[in-house]
Amino acid sequence: xxxxxxxxxxxxxxxxxxxxxxxxxxxxxxxxxxxxxxxxxxxxxxxxxxxxxxxxxxxxxxxxxxxxxxxxxxxxxxxxxxxxxxxxxxxxxxxxxxxxxxxxxxxxxxxxxxxxxxxxxxxxxxxxxxxxxxxxxxxxxxxx
Length: 144
What we know:
Layout: E1 2-3, E2 9-15, E3 20-27, E4 42-45, E5 52-57, E6 66-68, E7 80-86, E8 92-98, H1 100-103, E9 110-114, E10 130-134, H2 135-138
């Protein structure tokens, strides 16, 4: 996650293989019961995703990503999750959780992200640790 010049949250997607075609946005702070499972509030879809690192404004979509549904209304007390999927959910990428408070220390050109433990393979058992780095450090050698 990052922010634009106005401080608006932006999804930063590292889509190295171009396989991620859908992003689901969840509001983890919405009240639920056992009968109401966690469901996405909105989705972002791209029929022809690029093999690239792209920035997608949460409110409007962009860079080939279309918002399906009403853009989310972010609340100061909200906790959010973004999950990445391939077409027909045949593949998933590592998602991210965030609050607006988490993004207060993020500046444009910097990214708040998690990194898997060194040498680990999915599924990761260690707790997720987030860090804020320049975008250039977020991009891996495996991404075009």
